[in-house]
Design goal:
The structure holds two protein chains of two kinds.
Chain A lengths: L48 H12 L22 H7 L2 H4 L11 H18 L3 E3 L5 H19 L5 E5 L5 H8 L3 E5 L9 H7 L4 E6 L12 H10 L3 E6 L11 H4 L3 E4 L1 H4 L14 E3 L11 E4 L4 E4 L16 H37 L15 E4 L7 H9 L7 E2 L8 E4 L7 H14 L4 H5 L12 H6 L6
Parallel strand pairs in A: 2-3, 2-4, 4-5, 5-6
Antiparallel strand pairs in A: 1-7, 6-7, 8-9, 10-12, 11-12
Helix pairs in contact in A: 2-11, 4-11, 5-6, 11-13
Chain B lengths: L2 H9 L28 H13 L6 E2 L12 H8 L1 H4 L11 H18 L3 E2 L6 H16 L3 E5 L4 H12 L4 E5 L9 H7 L4 E8 L13 H4 L4 E6 L17 E5 L15 E5 L11 E6 L5 E6 L5 H4 L12 H39 L13 E5 L5 H6 L2 E2 L2 E2 L12 E5 L6 H14 L1
Parallel strand pairs in B: 1-12, 3-4, 3-5, 5-6, 6-7
Antiparallel strand pairs in B: 2-8, 7-8, 9-10, 11-14, 13-14
Helix pairs in contact in B: 3-11, 5-11, 6-7, 11-13
Classes of the chains: A alpha/beta, B alpha/beta.
Protein name (chain A): Probable glycine dehydrogenase (decarboxylating) subunit 2
Enzyme class (chain A): oxidoreductase
GO cellular component, one term (chain A): glycine cleavage complex
């Protein structure tokens, strides 16, 4: 595809000169406020609405989106999001309700939340759900707090969380936020958790083991039952990072694998546009023995009406202001009922098919380490090609395709992490493979000159950090 | 041959089932149990049916964190543009200049509004921003005590407790005086060598505009000042940067984001430049590209979880980028004059509300100026009776602060939308109920 991204010499909003057109007709006198409380100067831009809209429209044209082309980067599931989900969240009856409204005036909203709790329980084979956490990492933090409170309640002093070296960076960060020490276990030569290393790491100090399955290498941890046994025998809890859940819908589940706590990334696994980084939603599910520790409220149904239940005996309390990212919950709910059992299973099947197909197309050219059968994503290394992953990534941009995640996971040198998702066609996969193979034919010099079809060319990141300019 | 068959063929397998052969049979799932797929139009039908069970046509006097404010239609239009709505975290800045510039502008607009040096673009909501601010204060000075006003809501305190639990920080409440403002003597007596930060709120949990916050920098000694403010109020009130705040935080929902039953929200966090390397979340910086053109890029990422892992300044990954766009475009459309007008109208309407309720014998708890939430003396719980009359309002203070001494305290909230006609309807309804 011939790709050329728009570029405007777009000024910052403060430098656009026009007159403010916002108005509210009611008059008000400034003397209503005593002088000692007043601010003296306010320096926001004074721009017309039409200039603001034009400004952001031009900016939007300098931004790549999943609606323009594929976004096959690993670990963050950038699939096409069906438009009906946006429509659902935009319905006035959902957008314009206040969290403190009496429960009898928000029964529809509570109904949706209750149903979503039930669906998430079914998908994960867990027993209870709190929808409150605002993002995946917030769900992790919530899970860690549940672990902490559980052992405090039992009177056990457990200070360590074990995490594989292939884990998402959020895992160790969340564990540390909860006050735990992080113990890292290495992967074996197949890219799975090294069981001997795990056995050696586990002790009376172990509070939990955090793991995603399939892992960030796109590999299913086949020893998961053995892992669960090792962790549970030590009296510790098994935590499931739900970032890669979309690879196993309907095939297996965290509950069946023996996990005690799960967080979902609703914005990745189901439907939510990624918003340039968010918002997301990260509900947490637990087995019944941990239900009382969940953040409150959760939604209950007595056969007649829905209510917010704050009465969980050992609750960790709250992790955010109200009931979570409600408009994201709505999108997930609508996506789940739209797909049903068969649809969700197809999501996984196609995501895994696409990943393995692309992997096979590339394996003659790039080193693709570890166990051969991948799930929804895989990691290749550019080391054998003599090229840098970063440079190839920039060349990909020139072809109208978003680059993979580069230099992650940390255990693969010159890593490129690729997750096509189920919404990429064979034609797009073929084209993507061609671009990745073509990149190898270019000289280092040529690759370093890329990208050139994008709004701007390679950016001086060192200067950005050295001459820190975070404000106009 | 269809595309799936030809892909299976290429892989040399008969069905996608074979791609799951590595999953042990002992953990295989039989069925999910959600049911059959639902056609798109039926999903929308079901959604509309449930939405119709929520009352949105009622007069709204609810607040205490989430406010029903005027949102220019253009804000929603801008955040609905798919190039913003469905783009990813700008890890590839060359194709993400639109999002990056919009976040840079948000950082700048908020920094100007707050009169602080820098602003991040990542906090989930005001409450978690407070938690992150407390953690940041600990990273800065390593001290263990944090002081908060007794008007802090239980839910906010609960979030804060969870954020500092792993640090074993102590949270201590200081008193408010009879005007509903900071009791300076009480606060001063609690500040010691182990105090990491003093948290002040303006307007505070009682809805009161509290000029005593302007005096805290004189008494805080070595501790840090964390100010929790209402961003709309800064259209007319002194900004936190002017009274010595080290970290300033807020809930940003009011800046162009619908109520959405309380989520998603936007946590705002600004701070002094000295503390930037201790700050959580993402920061966008200005630089140049290979041709010397101005360009924006995520910066100081070495503080973040994907690089620093256990040593990161926060675990933030997915965050509130799209909502920073809403806030940025909202502030750009309103400008200084618009924001000032909205803030002044809010004060005017709060005053009108208090006078009108005063006329029927319902008095304010505090003889102070309130911003939008005003606390009245009403013993009865009026919320459900009002709802029957199509009015939302009347949250008891004790449902927000369980052990508050103001047991009769009941909130009614005004915004720029709360005109005399709406206030009259509330007065009429209350006259019947009381």
């Amino acid at each position: 595809m011939n790709f050329k991204q728009a570029y405007y010499e777009e000024p910052i909003i403060k430098d656009i000169k026009s007159s403010n057109t916002f108005s509210l007709s009611e008059q008000v006198d400034e003397s209503i406020l005593p002088e000692n409380l007043k601010r003296k100067d306010l320096e926001l831009p004074e721009v017309s609405e039409y200039d603001v809209v034009r400004h952001y429209t031009r900016l939007s044209q300098m931004n790549y989106t999943v609606d323009v082309g594929i976004y096959p980067l690993g670990s963050c599931t950038m699939k096409y999001n069906p438009k009906f989900a946006d429509r659902v969240s935009a319905i006035d009856g959902f957008r314009n309700i206040h969290p403190f409204q009496p429960e009898n005036t928000v029964q529809g909203a509570l109904h949706v939340m209750y149903d979503l709790q039930e669906y998430l329980k079914k998908i994960s084979d867990m027993d209870a759900v709190s929808l409150q956490p605002m993002a995946g990492a917030d769900g992790e933090f919530t899970g860690i707090l549940i672990v902490k409170k559980y052992f405090e309640d039992k009177g056990e002093d457990r200070t360590e969380i074990i995490i594989p070296d292939s884990a998402h960076g959020t895992n160790p960060a969340s564990a540390t936020m909860g006050g735990f020490d992080v113990v890292e276990v290495p992967s074996d030569d197949k890219g799975m958790v090294d069981l001997e290393a795990l056995r050696a790491a586990v002790s009376k100090k172990t509070a939990a083991f955090m793991i995603t399955n399939p892992n960030t290498l796109g590999i299913f941890e086949q020893n998961i039952e053995e892992i669960a046994k090792i962790i549970h025998n030590a009296g510790a809890l098994l935590y499931y990072d739900g970032a890669n859940l979309n690879a196993i819908f309907g095939i297996t589940s965290p509950g069946l694998m023996g996990f005690d706590i799960v967080h979902f990334n609703l914005h990745k696994s189901f439907a939510t546009p990624h918003g340039g980084g968010g918002p997301g939603a990260g509900p947490v599910a637990v087995k019944s023995f941990l239900k009382d520790f969940l953040p409150v409220p959760i939604v209950d149904f007595d056969g007649n009406s829905y209510r917010l239940n704050y009465e969980l005996k050992k609750t960790i309390g709250k992790v955010s202001s109200f009931y979570g990212s409600f408009s994201i919950l709505l999108r997930a709910w609508s996506y789940i009922i739209r797909n049903g059992d068969d649809g969700l299973k197809n999501v996984s099947a196609r995501a895994v098919l696409n990943s393995n197909y692309l992997k096979k197309k590339l394996e003659k050219y790039y080193d693709i380490p570890y166990y051969p059968l991948k799930k929804h994503e895989f990691v290749l290394s550019t080391e054998n090609t003599g090229k840098r992953a970063l440079d190839i990534g920039k060349y990909i941009l020139d072809n109208g395709i978003h680059s993979p995640t580069v230099y992650f996971p940390l255990i693969v040198k010159e890593a490129m992490m690729i997750e096509p998702t189920e919404t990429v066609s064979k034609a797009d996969l073929d084209n993507y493979a061609d671009v990745l193979i073509e990149a190898l034919k270019l000289s280092d010099e040529e690759l370093k000159s890329r990208p050139k079809n994008t709004a701007v060319r390679r950016i001086d990141e060192v200067k950005a950090a050295r001459d820190l300019k975070l404000k106009w | 041959m269809d595309e799936i068959s030809s892909m299976l063929d290429y892989l040399g397998i008969k069905s996608t089932e074979e791609l799951f052969s590595d999953i042990p049979l002992s953990v295989r799932k039989k069925e999910i149990g959600i049911g059959s797929p639902l056609d798109e139009h039926l999903v929308l039908e079901r959604a509309r049916k449930y939405a119709s069970l929520n009352s949105t046509e009622m007069l709204n006097f609810l607040g205490n964190g989430i406010y029903d404010r005027v949102i220019p239609e253009a804000v929603n239009y801008i955040i609905s543009k798919s190039e913003f709505l469905d783009s990813y975290t700008p890890y590839q800045p060359e194709v993400s200049q639109g999002m990056l510039q919009s976040i840079f502008e948000y950082q700048s607009l908020i920094s100007d509004l707050f009169k602080m040096d820098f602003t991040n673009a990542s906090m989930y909501d005001g409450y978690s921003a407070l938690g992150e601010a407390a953690r940041m204060a600990y990273r800065i000075n390593g001290k263990n005590k944090i002081l908060i006003p007794e008007s802090t809501y239980d839910s906010k305190l609960s979030v804060l407790k969870n954020y500092v639990w792993g640090l074993s920080m102590k949270i201590e409440k200081y008193k408010m005086n009879e005007e509903g403002k900071i009791d300076i003597d009480d606060l001063q007596s609690r500040i010691d060598g182990d105090t990491s930060a003093v948290v002040v709120e303006n307007p505070n949990g009682y809805g009161v505009i509290d000029e005593n916050v302007f005096r805290i920098s004189e008494i805080k000694k070595e501790s840090l000042l964390i100010s929790y403010v209402d961003p709309i109020s800064l259209g007319v009130l002194k900004p936190p940067g002017e009274y010595g705040s080290d970290i300033a935080i807020a809930e940003g929902q009011q800046l162009g984001i619908p109520m959405n039953f309380g989520g998603p929200l936007l946590g705002i966090m600004s701070f002094k430049a000295d503390y930037v390397r201790k700050s959580p979340g993402r920061l966008i910086g200005e630089s140049v590209d290979a041709d010397g053109k101005r360009a924006f890029v995520m910066t100081l990422q070495t503080r973040e979880q994907h690089i620093r892992r256990a040593k990161a300044t926060s675990n933030i990954c997915s965050n509130q980028a799209l909502l920073t766009l809403a806030a940025g475009s909202y502030l750009s459309i309103l400008g200084s004059s618009g924001l000032k007008k909205v803030a002044l109208l809010t004060i005017k309407h709060s005053k009108n509300l208090a006078e009108s309720l005063g006329n029927i014998g319902i008095e304010k708890v505090f003889d102070s100026i309130s911003f939008s939430d005003t606390l009245f003396r009403i013993d009865k719980n009026v919320m459900l009776d009002l709802a029957k009359k199509g009015i939302l309002g009347g949250i008891k203070l004790t449902s927000l602060i369980k052990d508050s001494k103001y047991s009769s305290g009941t909130f009614f909230t005004a915004t720029e939308k709360t005109d005399n006609e709406k206030i009259k309807a509330l007065v009429n309804a209350l006259e019947v109920i009381m």
